[in-house]
Amino acid sequence: MNGKLARRSSLFLLELMISILLFSLASAWCIRLFVTARSINRENEELSRMQNLAAGYAELFLASEDFEAFLVEEGAEKVESNGILYHFWYDRDWNICGGEEAAVCLEAVITRDGDFEKCSFSYGKVGSGELIYLLDVEKYTKREVSS
């Protein structure tokens, strides 16, 4: 009788160990999924923020008479090249900062071609040189002559 009871208890312990092993594997897999989901969510939040900021600057560009003065007033760094290049540096909390502690850079390139003024807004990660988001906007600047 004692041998039968010992076999049942050892079988029960084995089943219990297998169950604990399966639950621990399932929980590890779920934790991995939660971490991956959080990472994807953070990337999507950053992309959404970039799109909203670029769209806002594009609307200001289209509506403004002196967009360049606005950019300088906002704290953009101006660089002369083929067009006029402005840099905005953002830290991880999306506050405008200097280039040293920046995580993301917005570049606004303004070019003039005849009666058209074009602005290209691009976002990229600092250090990697990777372009994440690009928005090109164009407006007609010639005024009508009144008679």
SS elements, strand count: 6
**Strand residue percentage:** 25-35%
Count of DSSP-assigned helices: 2
Cα-atom radius of gyration = 29 Å
In terms of quaternary structure, the protein is: single chain
Largest sheet: 6 strands, antiparallel
Shape field: rod-shaped
Give the H and E element order: HHEEEEEE
Mean pLDDT: 85
Unreliable stretches covering 5 or more consecutive residues: none
Question: Which structural class do the helices and strands define?
Answer: alpha+beta
- Helix fraction, binned, reads 40-55%
What is the terminal-to-terminal distance?
116 Å
Our count of domains comes out at: 1
How does this model look, in words?
- The chain is of the alpha+beta class and 147 residues long.
- The chain has one domain.
- 48% of the residues lie in helices and 29% in strands.
- Strands 1, 2, 3, 4, 5 and 6 form a six-stranded antiparallel beta sheet that branches.
- Strand 5 and strand 6 form a beta hairpin.
- The model has no long low-confidence stretch (mean pLDDT 85).
Strand and helix map with partners:
Layout: H1 2-63, H2 67-74, E1 77-80, E2 84-90, E3 96-97, E4 104-113, E5 116-125, E6 131-140
Antiparallel strand pairs: 1-2, 2-3, 2-4, 4-5, 5-6
What's the short story on this structure?
The protein is α+β, with helices and mostly antiparallel strands. The chain has one domain. The chain contains two helices and six strands, in the order ααββββββ.
